[in-house]
Amino acid sequence: MTKISTLLKTYRVKSGLTQKQLASRMNFNHTVISRIENQENGYLPTIAYVQKFCNALELAEDDRLIIQAAYEKALMEHKQQEISEQNQPTEDLISTLLQKQSTNIPAFSKKKIPLGSLLISIMLLLFSVWYYLQLSGKTEKKNLVSNFSPGTLLYAENFEDHSTEGWENLNIGQWEIMDRNGNSALAIQPPNPEAVPNAFLTQSLTWKDYVMDVDVVFRSGSFEQVYLVVRNAGRENNCTGYRIGGNRLGVAIFRFDPKDQCLGETLAENSNFSLVDGNTYHMRVEVVGELIRYYINDELVLEASDSTYPQGGIGLLGYQVQWVTFDNIFVKSR
Prior knowledge:
Radius of gyration: 25 Å
Oligomer: single chain
Number of helices: 6
Order of helices and strands: HHHHHHEEEEEEEEEEEEE
CATH architecture of the largest domain: Sandwich
CATH superfamily of the largest domain: Exo-inulinase, domain 1
């Protein structure tokens, strides 16, 4: 069966569209299409992308089924590879332990091994494997998802007490409380153009399904990049989860790839809704199961579906700005 990347490229070329023309139809950045069509990086698109691709080209049902079959095959291979990589550390450990034990035991043909020594060696091997599995189990327990009843208030803060307690800065830049027009808010004033400061709420690491409401105001700098971050892993891996927001050119839902250095895929874009310097925006992000919704001033502007990150915390991101404030942050479980 043809690879999904090759198949998508074939259909695009057959339709007579360039990558930029297709991107315009799908409301995606053309760099995403370029990356998906590159066979060498093995990049797998989301099902939402595939559906938009088929709709943009107005493909017949038979063609859609061909693409769907290729996508499902690629998805299965991708999951099998992930499972293999996850199991490899345990397999390597057991193999190493067996090799160490075998080097400490003389060959039977040369010298008879006392039964007591053999039993001790076996017990040490079994204990080593058990101890490793116990450590793995403890690590997994730390990452268990916190489940809350729908509607539970998980976090509420208006920063009137001038406290940044619970917020951790993950990049260059100092988060602080800014008073503007008699109102206090969590704010960032990047010290240099290279700063990409990300404030992360440490207590939110194990949250799963929730809705996040924030009031946002910014003053543009060299440009502006203003985002809310959800289902992020915090300091463990800053470039994880979903980045939602944008600038004067529009807004987008972006998914970070765990194995890349802050690279990823734009899941949805809306170039018709731009963020303007000085305006106050009430932003809401909902993450429920695989569904991600983005509202601005109570209007749904973006929606996407993705299963990469089932849990993770909230963050705030602002760069290429003179300053940006985030206020009246409320998070409820869904």
